[in-house]
Automatic annotation (TrEMBL), chain A:
PANTHER family in alphabetical order: LACTATE UTILIZATION PROTEIN C
Name of this chain's protein: Lactate utilization protein C
Domain LUD: 50-232
UniProt similarity note: Belongs to the LutC/YkgG family.
Function in brief: Is involved in L-lactate degradation and allows cells to grow with lactate as the sole carbon source.
GO BP annotations, alphabetical order: lactate metabolic process
Species, as recorded: Mesobacillus selenatarsenatis (strain DSM 18680 / JCM 14380 / FERM P-15431 / SF-1)
Superkingdom in the source lineage: Bacteria
SUPFAM superfamilies: NagB/RpiA/CoA transferase-like
InterPro entries from the UniProt entry: FTHF_cligase-like_sf (IPR024185), LUD_dom (IPR003741), LutC (IPR022823), NagB/RpiA_transferase-like (IPR037171)
TrEMBL record, chain B:
Ranges for domain LUD: 70-294
Binding site for [4Fe-4S] cluster 1: C312, C315, C318, C372
Gene3D superfamilies: Alpha-helical ferredoxin, NagB/RpiA/CoA transferase-like
Domain Lactate utilization protein B C-terminal: 385-469
UniProt superkingdom: Bacteria
Record domain 4Fe-4S ferredoxin-type: where: 309-376
A GO molecular function held by the record: metal ion binding
Name by which UniProt lists this protein: Lactate utilization protein B
Task performed by this protein: Is involved in L-lactate degradation and allows cells to grow with lactate as the sole carbon source. Has probably a role as an electron transporter during oxidation of L-lactate.
A biological process term (GO) from this entry: lactate metabolic process
Organism field: Mesobacillus selenatarsenatis (strain DSM 18680 / JCM 14380 / FERM P-15431 / SF-1)
Encoding gene (name): lutB
Binding positions ([4Fe-4S] cluster 2): C322, C365, C368
Similarity-based family: Belongs to the LutB/YkgF family.
Length: 233, 474
């Protein structure tokens, strides 16, 4: 795709910097300190779950923990609390693996479940906009900040965790890392190995909020107004 | 140019600010809360100084190699199906965006908070070609409905109370509800949702562009930047040329510094990295993506002693720490960039002529420098500005205005009580017998012109009284 006016623009910057243009060979220096690597260093997955649980209070997010056998029940409770009838989910093999598809099948008289389907195009967005609940599986979970990382793809549209009134993230315990550092490093390494980053990467931390009116925290602005995380052992 | 927000003289702006009780109270409680948040986060980390050092190193390296990283960024964006336009001036940037709007025959444009589009006056340009522009950040939307400029870079509508907001909604949008913040926000959600879904084009700013992958990182709490980038088929990102990092690893560090320093959060609700156009079969995200890289005076700062001002990550920590901002409010700076960072960069971007009083809107207490997550020596830059103003022979006028400005907010006692204590350590090393003499570097020329009384054990208030009585001389 087009790149316009670049050469003159960058030549000028180089001349302001008092040197020739640099077009190759710039390496990041060794930083003198790396405090980001020290956070929760060496913690076990269970300890990270505790960190996450504690932080969920700060981010106005309900925290639940269960195992694969208990997931259907916890999901059911959460959907009831959210009065969730129309549900939109990503298309992800883990719904099958974790028995969620089976649960949806059993509940098919009560629940209207739409699985994101690329072939339907914009229709997916329209369903997401009407949906009561959006559900995604977390790809990488950041314990420190209580953040769900979602790699958005043709099977996992951004709208799922954005347009519905409420949001549920299913978090396999194995996806927990201490903080954003590990997620960023993972993406950086993939990029360095010639894999392209997904066109849309979302780091989602609880429901949307704003402090724009007299500095009062308002939970629920443009995105979901409520969020639940379900950690699965 | 639109960095400037009004023609009212500095002194009047300050007095207006001081008289507005709600604004003062709001600013002061916001400052308090933001600061507490930042300090709590810093203490929790334990090694905040290491984080700041790292932030400074990253920004220094990136700016030193800005041409290289911008080249890499543009290659990557292009490879991922996006268009890149380098704009030397505000006019060029606006023209490029206008051309897209015309080509797309776009009727409705939704925007997510962006200081740089405010700086270049993009909204006006788009309205010229007949597009309806909707600001989607709650605070910005309120200001847009009321045609009011922002007063803070993180919470732009800080100076408005909820009764005023309710009236605005009622007058402009037929709102009939109460003035509870939740109900006001729910109304905004409902109204703006329709705009998001109907928009032809989304326009965003950029917190950090990632050179290695051509990604644009956006940091919000409301989710509006996500709506703006996920729903319209055309997305245009406008970035100040310095808002870039080498890789995802540095992005992560700076985002952590930004959210902690700005709002005391570990991360905001939404951090989004958008890379080029959407891929085949993807539904969300833009079909057509444009990145506009804006200079608009920034390159004049590169290679100068003020280069570190370009390290700014727009967190507003310096603003929240500033005792002068607390008393005069954001509008008094007559710049969309208020507070200490505004006082440093506005004269650099637009020249001293219109903004020569700004470097004097400071007690040089160094609270800004201490708060800055990337360690920009803000108060030293302010001192250097004053020196240059003196060298340019603008000093007599500047000083007169300074006296008036100081006198105006000096009539308020609490500021002096807090200033005197803070100013001392900042100027400490260069004072002799209570006078600043032969200060190293920056202070030199100023002190050559006239010995400048250092705030000693005496309060700032008595210092200024004294100064005024003596007709400004020692
Ligand atoms: S100068 Fe520093 S403290 Fe002020 S807004 Fe910029 S980064 Fe934040």
């Amino acid at each position: 795709m087009s790149i316009q006016n670049r050469e003159a623009f960058l030549d000028k910057l180089a001349s302001r910097l008092g040197r020739e243009r640099r077009t190759a060979g710039v390496e990041r220096p060794q930083w003198s300190v790396t405090p980001q690597d020290e956070v929760f260093k060496g913690m076990s997955q269970d300890e990270l779950v505790e960190v996450l649980e504690k932080h969920c209070k700060v981010i106005h997010t309900d925290f639940k923990r269960t195992d694969r056998d208990g997931l259907a029940k916890v999901l059911n409770e959460t959907l009831e609390a959210y009065e969730g009838k129309l549900i939109i989910t990503s298309k992800d093999a883990r719904y099958q693996e974790y028995g969620v598809n089976e649960f949806f099948e059993e509940q098919k008289d009560q629940l209207d479940v739409h699985v994101w389907e690329a072939a339907l195009g914009k229709e997916n967005q329209k369903i997401a906009e009407r949906a009561d609940v959006g559900i995604v599986f977390s790809d990488i979970t950041l314990a420190e900040s209580g953040t769900v990382t979602s790699f958005n793809t043709k099977d996992n549209g951004r709208s799922i965790s954005l347009l519905p009134r409420t949001f549920i993230a299913i978090i396999p315990k194995s996806t927990l890392v201490p903080r954003m550092t590990q997620a960023a490093r993972h993406i950086h390494q993939a990029q360095a190995n010639g894999e392209d980053v997904p066109s849309y990467v979302s780091f989602i931390t609880g429901p949307s909020n704003s402090a724009d009116i007299e500095m009062n925290l308002i939970v629920g602005v443009h995105g979901p107004v409520k969020a639940t995380y379900i950690v699965v052992d | 140019m639109s960095i400037k927000i009004g023609e009212v003289p500095y002194k009047e702006r300050i007095q207006k600010g001081i008289k507005d009780d709600f604004m003062r109270q709001a600013v002061s409680s916001a400052q308090g809360r933001f600061r507490t948040g930042r300090i709590t986060q810093a203490e929790e980390l334990g090694n905040w100084e290491d984080w700041r050092d790292l932030g400074e190193e990253i920004r220094t390296h990136t700016l030193e190699n800005l041409d290289y990283y911008l080249q890499q960024l543009s290659e990557q964006v292009s490879r991922r199906g996006g268009h890149v336009f380098f704009a030397e001036t505000a006019e060029e940037a606006n023209q490029y965006v206008k051309d897209i709007i015309l080509k797309k025959q776009a009727k409705k444009v939704v925007k997510a908070k962006s200081m740089v589009t405010e700086e270049i006056g993009l909204n006006k340009a788009l309205e010229e070609v007949g597009a309806e522009v909707v600001e989607s950040d709650l605070g910005e939307w309120i200001l847009q409905l009321d045609e009011d400029p922002p007063s803070h870079i993180v919470t732009p509508a800080l100076h408005k109370n909820k009764q005023q907001i309710r009236e605005t909604f009622a007058k402009k949008k037929g709102y009939t509800g109460s003035d509870t913040p939740e109900e006001l926000a729910a109304f905004a959600r409902e109204q703006l949702r329709q705009d998001f879904l109907a928009a032809d084009v989304g326009v965003t700013g950029c917190n950090f562009a990632i050179a290695e992958s051509g990604s644009i990182t956006l940091v919000t709490n409301e989710g509006n930047a996500e709506m703006v980038t996920a729903l319209p088929d055309t997305v245009i990102t406008v970035m100040g040329m310095e808002r870039i990092v080498p890789t995802w690893e540095e992005m992560e560090v700076l985002v952590s510094l930004l959210t902690r320093a700005a709002v005391g959060q570990k991360l905001t609700s939404y951090i989004t990295a958008l890379t080029g156009a959407r891929l085949d079969e993807e539904v969300d995200g833009p079909e057509e993506f444009h990145l506009v890289v804006v200079d608009n005076g920034r390159s004049k700062i590169l290679g100068t002693e003020f280069q570190s001002a370009l390290h700014c990550i727009r967190c507003a920590a310096c603003i929240n720490a500033c005792p002068v901002y607390r008393h005069i409010g954001g509008h008094a700076y007559n710049s969309i960039y208020p507070g200490p960072i505004g006082a440093v960069i506005t004269p650099l971007l637009e020249g001293y002529e219109d903004h020569k009083e700004l470097p004097y809107a400071s007690t040089l207490c160094a609270a800004c420098t201490e708060a800055c997550p990337v360690k920009i020596p803000l108060h030293e830059h302010l001192i250097r500005h004053r020196q240059i103003i003196v060298e340019k022979n603008m000093a007599p006028t500047a000083e007169k205005l300074m006296m008036k400005g100081f006198a105006a907010w000096g009539s308020n006692p609490s500021i002096y009580n807090m200033s005197a204590k803070m100013a001392k350590p900042a100027l400490g090393p260069w004072t002799k017998d209570g006078m600043i003499e032969n200060g190293p570097g920056p202070l030199k020329a100023w002190t050559d012109v006239r010995d400048f009384y250092a705030p000693q054990g005496q309060s700032f208030r008595s210092w200024f009284k004294q100064r005024q009585k003596d007709g400004g001389s020692k």
